[in-house]
Amino acid sequence: MSVGERIAVVGAGLVGSSWAIVFARAGCEVAMFDAAPGAAERAVGTIAQRLDDLVAAGLLHDAADVLARIRVEATLAGALAGAGYVQESVLERTAVKRAVFAEIDAALVPDAIVGSSSSGIPASEFTGHVACRARCLVAHPVNPPYLIPVVELVPAPWTAPETVRRTRALMERVGQAPVEMTREAEGFILNRLQGVLLMEAWRLVEEGLASVADVDRTVSEGLGLRWSFMGPFETIDLNAPGGVADYAARLGPLYQRIAASRTEHRVWDAALIAKVEQQRRALLAEGDLVARSAWRDRRLMALARHRRDAAGQEPE
Ligand SMILES: NC(=O)c1ccc[n+]([C@@H]2O[C@H](COP(=O)([O-])OP(=O)(O)OC[C@H]3O[C@@H](n4cnc5c(N)ncnc54)[C@H](O)[C@@H]3O)[C@@H](O)[C@H]2O)c1
């Protein structure tokens, strides 16, 4: 794939450096800027390591070719010069994002779009004061976006529909999987779904109905296997002979009864957190968290390769 567009990445931390890989891998020229001295240069080192990992996993042919399309700029204005799309990836703090959007506004080329990696702060809280606000939106990735393609596009009330349409098209061109919300809602789609599952997971352990290990196993050896290639609606559509309406007729009352029994809002209090923590640490010592995270990333790469092979695609 060679998209050949010019992209600026503002904030070169964990997420910004991963975004640089997404765009450069697709053939874009990427300029990175970070306000902390030396941070963008350090990010290039991290990116080089990740590209080597992708080559080793059979997910990329030429790391040097991708790396050559990523450059560090010493100023925000330098990074934004000529960029048609800006991916803001600075700290998750409203004041920091408000300030950086004012700086971006002053240096943005006409018609360029600014997508924010914001995990939870809606764009209406940090873009209302800038002239380019119709061209701003949230474009929330899942970490790391070069292995997990979904991107949540969430417009502020003043975001132009054209901005969402163009961002969606760009994300498709660079190989991501954009999804859209029609308006802002805290947690967007992904964390709202994850939140519902987590609430019940904590509750099952709190009530002593199941162990932490068995709740996790129910997902890793059960629900999650389908979820790696289809969503909850398609899942239930295939789980009754007559499709989703048939499923709703058969099992709807069960889910309604469960929901009716869970109306009380419960906080994850200190005792419950200690209970889950104790069970998790018995399964994985604190000192092994980093190694297990590396294992997770290797599993994600193997899954990405399987998905690519299943789709009959060649490596970039
Ligand atoms: N970490 C995740 O799993 C994850 C996932 C999805 C989205 N996000 C979101 O992505 C954004 C970045 O998160 P992260 O985890 O990469 O954080 P991070 O701390 O790793 O990186 C943030 C970077 O922004 C830089 N920065 C701060 N102010 C700046 C400014 N004014 N101009 C330029 N650079 C500036 C910092 O120096 C730092 O290098 C946040 O909004 C976060 O919520 C994070």
Compile the SSE list and pairings.
Layout: E1 6-10, H1 14-25, E2 29-33, H2 39-56, H3 63-67, E3 70-72, H4 76-80, E4 85-88, H5 94-107, E5 113-116, E6 136-141, E7 150-155, H6 161-173, E8 177-180, H7 190-206, H8 212-227, H9 232-237, H10 244-260, H11 270-283, H12 289-310
Helix pairs in contact: 1-2
The structure holds nicotinamide-adenine-dinucleotide.
Explain how this protein is built.
By secondary structure, the chain is α/β, with parallel strands linked by helices. It folds into 2 domains: 6-180, NAD(P)-binding Rossmann-like Domain (Rossmann fold); 190-283, Orthogonal Bundle (N-(1-d-carboxylethyl)-l-norvaline Dehydrogenase, domain 2), CATH 1.10.1040.10. The chain has 12 helices and 8 strands. The protein has helices spanning 14-25, 39-56, 63-67, 76-80, 94-107, 161-173, 190-206, 212-227, 232-237, 244-260, 270-283, 289-310; strands at 6-10, 29-33, 70-72, 85-88, 113-116, 136-141, 150-155, 177-180. Strands 3-2-1-4-5-6-7-8 form an 8-stranded mixed β-sheet, sandwiched between helices. Strand 6 and strand 7 form a beta hairpin. The termini are close together. The model has no long low-confidence stretch (mean pLDDT 96). Bound molecules: nicotinamide-adenine-dinucleotide. Nicotinamide-adenine-dinucleotide binds at residues 10-16, 33-36, 39, 89-92, 96, 100, 117-119, 140-141, 143.
